[in-house]
Amino acid sequence: MVAVGVLAGLSVLSLLTYGYLSWESLGLGPGETEATRTGLGEGLGAGAPSSQPHIIFILADDQGFRDVGYHGSEIRTPTLDKLAAEGVKLENYYVQPMCTPSRSQFITGKYQIHTGLQHSIIRPTQPNCLPLDNVTLPQKLKEVGYSTHMVGKWHLGFYRRECMPTQRGFDTFFGSLLGSGDYYTHFKCDSPGICGYDLYENDNAAWDHDNGIYSTQMYTQKVQQILASHNPRKPLFLYIAYQAVHSPLQAPGKYFEHYRSINNINRRRYAAMLACLDEAINNVTLALRKYGYYENSIIIYSSDNGGQPMAGGSNWPLRGSKGTYWEGGIRAVGFVHSPLLKNKGSVCKELVHITDWFPTLITLAEGQIDEDIQLDGYDIWETISEGRRSPRVDILHNIDPIYTKAKNGSWAAGYGIWNTAIQSAIRVNHWKLLTGNPGYSDWVPPQAFSNAGPNRWHNERVSWSAGKTVWLFNITADPYERVDLSARYPDVVKQLLRRLSQFNKTAVPVRYPPKDPRSNPKLNGGVWGPWFKEDEKKKKSDKSANKQKKNKNKKKAN
């Protein structure tokens, strides 16, 4: 009988993982869960259910603003559409233009300028990670009794063991440490000859899980296992950072069926990847219901940055793409779905930023935010749940002092307030200001994907006057950034430049070290992983201390 039960459980798990499964097919009535029918909750633990909600944060990778059904995409996303329609759509929601910055701001509630990660991303070979003196969201949630689990892409550094997810607040971790890799083999080459395996379970390479399973499905399986084994009466924080839909563009064959009419091969592969991701999220929500979590859960969905048109993503009608500070790089797909919401089925057009999740979720979890933590995020739960005004009036998109300087930028162009050669972007109320080199600035309409490309012939391009390094837009009136108002409203430009200058005074030095040859996976058993040993650091410091003593003694002798 036990064996039969185990086999039955595995068959349901495989159905949940590899295809859509309707709630009725599980034999459950409306509003009924497996936990309520069988008393699963009682069997797993005594006492009343926790008043603290289960928090499920799902982060997609490189999903474009247009790439969801309810934004008009040709790619079908029935699960995302349904969850968003029954929850609250965030239609004035901002993230950062690349992977590491968004993830660091989510997990700390701080802008990049306050963690030292304001330039680019953390590269595989860099001795760099999210600074250890930053308190993380899972650490704060553990303080108030949460079990914390992470599944998916980390991308916050790993050169020391102290940088690993399990050392930063997660009870368990299953996923990848790097920014990208093969979806089936989990190998990643950073450069010719610098290649390694990148799949971890907690602090060790997960060779046992190397079964050629597509990562989106494999991560979903792991989520289901966590939900099946945890007690739903105890609060749970589950951070699911899917690899999809980041390049390389790979997907199981069956997901191409509905998209063979898309001529552009990158767009077709991207569509298949997104279809698989949508199905995976359906299976996660089914598992939340099945194991008794759903009624006391908050599901948050977010992309980490804008889409990359050259890799199949679309941000139309927004301008720009991933890696830029135009709206197409930083305005994201996002929604909250929860039975605990007061205004279900609504749209939130208030200003929300990815740093806001840190204080919002800690407050919902009945935790405390230390007074000495200087946060950049705000508690926006009442804004989302009840439709109140957002406490946020501005967003520092970033100040990157070491990004390639704009050739014609100067202090004079910044009215003596700011050097416009520096790449920066800020939003204050309706106004958005950009300086320096904001990045690729085309609008890429859907027809650009008709041929292999996308074909630049279809892109809308603007030739700015030579030497331009300041742009001003009223984003509320002009969300597509078509009308530059910097010449018309110089006083507004000056106000925003002063705000940039104020932020810059609080910035910490940039952390962007050169690559370390010891990071080569060949020196670490063929695996990407921590290479910086603490004893080596001590030996170096001891050697330098000895040298200093010798030099002092020489001086004294002289």
Task: Provide key terms for this protein.
four-stranded antiparallel sheet, 2 domains, Alkaline Phosphatase, subunit A, 27% helix, 558 residues, ten-stranded mixed sheet, 15% strand, Arylsulfatase, C-terminal domain, alpha/beta
How many domain units?
2
Radius of gyration: 24 Å
Task: Give me the count of strands.
Answer: 18
Distance linking N and C termini: 88 Å
The total of helices stands at: 13
CATH topology of the largest domain: Alkaline Phosphatase, subunit A
- The CATH class of the largest domain is identified as Alpha Beta
- Helix-and-strand structural type: alpha/beta
Overall description:
One of its GO terms (molecular function) is sulfuric ester hydrolase activity. The chain is α/β, with parallel strands linked by helices and 558 residues long. The chain has two domains: 340 residues, Alkaline Phosphatase, subunit A (3-Layer(aba) Sandwich); 108 residues, Arylsulfatase, C-terminal domain, CATH 3.30.1120. The protein has 13 helices and 18 strands. The strands form four sheets. A ten-stranded mixed β-sheet has the order 9-8-5-4-10-1-11-12-2-13, with helices on both faces. A four-stranded antiparallel β-sheet has the order 15-16-17-18, with helices on one face. A hairpin with a 2-residue loop joins strand 6 and strand 7. The longest helix is centred in the middle third of the chain and has 26 residues.
